[in-house]
Amino acid sequence: MIFIAAYIALLSMINVYRAYTCIQNAIDQTAKQVSEYAYIAKKLGVYSTK
């Protein structure tokens, strides 16, 4: 019985790690896109930094 509980706990930890990795990748990708758009907007003079 203890082995089943340990196996389920391990699977649960793996699922949490997979979710964390997926969310972290989404955050990284979003930050990259925002920085690209901000760079383009600054070069085009869309907004002023004054």
**SSE sequence, one letter per element:** H
* Quantity of strands, as a count: 0
Could you name the ranges where pLDDT drops below 50 across 5 or more consecutive residues? none
Computed over alpha carbons, the radius of gyration is 21 Å
What does the oligomeric state look like here? single chain
The average pLDDT is 93
Give the % helix. Answer: over 70%
Task: Report on the architecture of this protein.
With 50 residues, the protein is an all-alpha fold. Helices cover 86% and strands 0% of the residues. The model has no long low-confidence stretch (mean pLDDT 93).
In summary, what is this structure?
With 50 residues, the protein is an all-alpha fold. It is 86% helix and 0% strand.
